[in-house]
Design brief:
The protein has 242 residues and is an all-alpha fold. The chain is built from nine helices and no strands. The radius of gyration is 19 Å and the shape is globular. The termini are far apart.
Length: 242
């Protein structure tokens, strides 16, 4: 009887959170992203001092890089019995589901703006836009490529950091908050080229995205917000820092 009771109780426990891919797959990806971030940091130093930085080439390279990382994640997930669709959180079944995610994305963005502004004020980082001035598009071709880059970042970075790393860290630690925090830290480290204050703000942004992904059990609202925020910030920043 006692054994039966234990078996019943265990059957009612939630299933453990599984990993997306094997540990070597993740360790290799972390090492590659660290190398990419270091290269981006020193590249940003050179671009800030350049008379005419090659922004268009940088946008194209970023797009190719992020989709390559997603392809690597898809390969690792498939070998592990998972898929990108599972990481993203399925798909919309009807228009109502789509509109619900749109509404969540809008509300999340407004809340995130307030949180990020407060963080920037606390860090005395309200003028960090000057640090990324070299990144901002200046002509029609660069504007087009910036929008393409923003769409890529919205999709790919949510898959990479919230879909892949957050789930990996959550499974390894057995702790949801730890997974959110570690993936946010990786997200911020990947943007260190913008300066340490901006990187901290991006860590906070990553925390918000991680919480949203856990609550919604989907990356779709985060993808929408991420895409819109990057696109809007770049185009608005272009006007403000002139």
């Amino acid at each position: 009887m006692a054994t039966d009771s234990i078996a019943i109780a265990q059957s009612n426990l939630p299933a453990p959170k599984s990993t997306v891919a094997g540990a070597p797959h993740t360790i290799f990806l972390l090492a590659v992203i660290a190398a990419w971030s270091a290269w981006g940091y020193f590249g940003a130093v050179r671009m800030r001092s350049a008379q005419n930085p090659h922004r268009a080439a940088m946008y194209v390279l970023t797009v190719l890089w992020e989709w390559s990382v997603v392809a690597y994640i898809a390969w690792g997930a498939r070998r592990h019995g998972s898929s990108l669709r599972e990481l993203i959180g399925g798909r919309w079944d009807n228009l109502k589901d789509f509109l619900k995610d749109v509404a969540i994305a809008v509300g999340f963005w407004l809340i995130a703006l307030v949180v990020l502004l407060c963080t920037a004020v606390a860090l005395h980082a309200t003028k960090t836009g000057q640090n990324i001035r070299f990144l901002l598009p200046q002509n029609h071709l660069e504007i087009f490529l910036w929008i393409l880059t923003s769409i890529t970042a919205g999709i790919c970075e949510e898959i990479i950091f919230r879909g892949y790393f957050q789930r990996q860290f959550r499974a390894w630690t057995g702790n949801v908050p730890a997974g959110v925090l570690l993936s946010a830290a990786a997200f911020g480290a990947g943007h260190i080229y913008q300066g340490w204050r901006s990187a901290i703000i991006i860590v906070v942004y990553g925390l918000l995205f991680g919480i949203l992904a856990e609550m919604r059990k989907s990356l779709r609202p985060g993808m929408m917000t991420h895409t819109w925020h990057d696109g809007f910030a770049g185009l608005a920043g272009r006007l403000l820092v002139k």
